[in-house]
Amino acid sequence: MLVKIVDHKGKERYINPIYVKALTAKSPTETEIEISGWSSKVRVKQPVEDVALAVNVAMPDAAAYIAAQEDEKAAQDAAAAATAVIG
Questions:
Q1: Domain ranges of the chain
Q2: How confident is the model at residue 68 (pLDDT cuts 50, 70, 90)?
C-alpha cells in the first residue's frame, strides 16, 4: 500500500513503505525520510512518530512478504534450472 506524504514545500507524494530506509527527526515537528533509489531525502512537517506509524501500518506483514519473495525466487530458480537442463 502506498503512503501519501506532503513534503515541506506542500508537494504531495506517494511512497512505497517497503523502500523506506530511514526516518530522521529534524525537529519535534519535522521528519526526513530516506527512500531507497531516490537521490535526495524528503522532509515532511510531521513528527517522526507519526510518519513511522503511517509507514508501519502500510507495510505488508514482513514474514508473509519475505516468504512470498522466497517462493518467487525458488520458482524462478527452478524454471532456470529446467531450461538449462532442457536447452
A1: 3-86
A2: confident
Instruction: Look at 75 and 61; give whichever has higher pLDDT.
Output: 75
Burial 19-38 (b: 16+ CB within 10 A, else e): ebeebeeeeeebbbbebeee
Work out the mean pLDDT of the chain and round it to a whole number.
Answer: 89
Residue at grid coordinates 517497503: 18
Backbone angles phi, psi at 2, to 5 degrees: -80, 150
CA distance 1 to 13: 13
In sequence order, the 6+-apart residues with CB closer than 8 A to the CB of 30 are 8, 43, 44, 45, 46
For residues 21 and 36, the answer to whether their CB atoms sit within 8 Å is yes
pTM: 0.68
